[in-house]
Amino acid sequence: MKTFEELGVAAPILKAIQEMGYESPMPVQEEVIPFLLGEDNDVIALAQTGTGKTAAFGLPILQKIDVNLCQPQALVLCPTRELCLQITDDLNEYSKYIDGLKVLPVYGGSSIESQIKTLKRGVHVVVATPGRLLDLMNRKTVNLGLVKNVILDEADEMLNMGFTESINSILAEVPSSRNMLLFSATMPQGIAGITRKYMKNPKEIVIGKKNEGNKNIKHVYYMVQARDKYLALKRIADYYPNIYGIVFCRTRKETQEIADKLIQDGYNADSLHGELSQAQRDYVMQKFRVKNVQLLVATDVAARGLDVDELTHVINYGLPDEIESYTHRSGRTGRAGRTGISISICHVKEKGKIRQIERIINKEFEKGEIPSGKAICEKQIFNLIDQVEKVKVDEEEISALLPSIFRKLEWLDKEDIIKRMVSLELNRMIDYYKDADEIQVVDERSERRSGSGERERRNGRNSANSEEGFSRFFLNFGKSDGLFPNQLIELVNKCVPGKIRIGKIDLRDNFSFFEVEEGEANRVLKEMNGYELEGRRVSVEYAQSKKGDSSGSRGGYRERKSGSNRDRGSFSPRSERKEKPWRRTSSDRSSRKKSRY
Ligand code: AMP
């Protein structure tokens, strides 16, 4: 293996990447760097994200910049704003010891005027999404006449997103004597069109076998009845207590629904999809990046450009419509030398798709058994014990309290204390799974199923009525006000002091229903009504007659709801959210008012 120096990387860049901890080149860098340092070289590189491709193209293009010439000399095209910003960050890091080198990210959704101003002042590298760059070209505010290197990153994604025409128009403006490098995780037909038209004898580099998925990824599928998909998801999340992953759904609606259910069921989850504003998406992505969110439920499109290296799992909540998307989804785990698991929770009708994907990734799926309640409890217990072993004890901070704690517990022996500590953390989980029927794995040939489903379904969890011991309320805020289950929980927390158990939450567009324990109903009514949120009055009422405790009816709410629209303010609960700890814990569960498992 060669060193970066031997590949021709110059001193200022070497210094920067050494500081970033890059000791030796990754395979794609070994292939691409020397080639791009040359002239008139075109490359097609089949490489997944996470293989080190940003540095593979970034280091040579930066090195070839003439800083004294204040014109774009390198152009990087990529599919999303997030990827655009990330590539820009990386290029800025690599070039921090090259004085005066300027990299400009150009993407839609931000002020075009400020991009024009920066272009006028002079930049050397433009990293752009195709639509916005074309806009700037049409306004004659960007000159691509001196570009020596063009990179198409995630080319297959750009084509999937319908950028083919824009890419063609952009490439037509770039001088024909330049290096061009095209990165793609897969090689659909459209790519061949671009390479034929714009590339000359391109060198083809394949990192891993052509169309082969990353070797570090294990592919597992669970075949369940459609109605058991969510229960299977919860079991998988419970079975991997330290899971840090993306749950891919097919539609925005499904994404929001699954995220809502997970949050309601006490998981540290959030949603990412196109119906959220850009600011909300940024906020969620940032929380996920810093691991304040453990499970991100996302659509394929919204998750593009979210670059996180340490995902332990990717979960396909159903297989994607486009088989090719599977490679992108699963390629988000097992990155930068780590191992990862790509889990597919699918229906027997998707069996054929599994076989197709196996052919594409050139690897067989393992058939998974949904973990039993017993196995999950064991896993959680040993995870807890592991944490106890590893926890850092701040002797100084706790020393003053220890004598009283020891005195209080002196009647218990070591075994008792251990048993109590374990029970404190895990009783809920044990209770939940104690009588739960196992989810039956579907017989793939007959599609018959013998089990009767989980206890929660028998209990009518999904019915519209409130559960035993709970009162159901109407609330005059809904999804269109930006309300999600966690914000509703926070709203209750804010208004009503002390502990409150929250049951089912049912969010509608303009209003919502939620349940609290019957004993707390009066307090909720008293404390929440009249509370002002960004200039708008919160209104809570009983939702339906239950044991004679109702004072309203659905018809009544509808009238009220339309009346209350008049004073609808700009409620933005997301901005009021408190950061949640990494993973829910029993203390977290009991101190915050949360829905039950
Ligand atoms: P990329 O495929 O460009 O997104 O890179 C994946 C990850 O690998 C990023 O976190 C990079 O910072 C890291 N990386 C890239 N090249 C190297 C290298 N030669 N040594 C160590 N880490 C690297």
Description of the structure:
The longest helix has 21 residues, at 414-434. By secondary structure, this protein is an alpha/beta fold. It is globular. Helix 3 (27-37) packs parallel to helix 4 (53-63) and helix 15 (323-330) packs across helix 16 (351-361). Adenosine monophosphate (AMP) is lined by residues 22, 25-26, 29, 49-55, 307, 309, 336.
**Tally of separate helices:** 26
Low-pLDDT ranges = 446-464, 545-597
Q: How many whole angstroms does the radius of gyration measure?
A: 28 Å
Structural class, from secondary structure content? alpha/beta
The coarse silhouette is: globular
Quote the distance from N terminus to C terminus. 52 Å
Could you say which small molecules are bound to this protein? adenosine monophosphate
Considering DSSP H and I runs of 4 or more, what fraction of the residues is helical? 40-55%
Oligomer: single chain
Strand content: 5-15%
Short descriptors:
597 residues, alpha/beta, seven-stranded parallel β-sheet, 20 strands, 15% strand, binds adenosine monophosphate
How are the SSEs ordered, and which strands pair?
Blueprint: H1 4-7, H2 11-19, H3 27-37, E1 42-46, H4 53-63, E2 74-77, H5 81-94, E3 103-106, H6 112-121, E4 125-128, H7 130-138, E5 149-152, H8 155-160, H9 164-172, E6 179-184, H10 189-198, E7 203-206, E8 217-223, H11 229-239, E9 245-248, H12 252-264, E10 269-272, H13 278-289, E11 295-298, H14 300-303, E12 313-317, H15 323-330, E13 340-346, H16 351-361, E14 366-367, H17 373-390, H18 395-399, H19 402-409, H20 414-434, H21 455-458, E15 470-475, H22 485-495, E16 502-507, E17 512-517, H23 521-528, E18 532-533, E19 536-537, E20 540-542, H24 554-564, H25 573-576, H26 586-591
Parallel strand pairs: 1-6, 1-7, 2-4, 2-5, 3-4, 5-6, 8-13, 8-14, 9-11, 9-12, 10-11, 12-13
Antiparallel strand pairs: 15-17, 15-20, 16-17, 18-19
Helix pairs in contact: 3-4, 4-5, 7-9, 15-16, 17-20
The structure holds adenosine monophosphate.
Adenosine monophosphate binds next to helix 4.
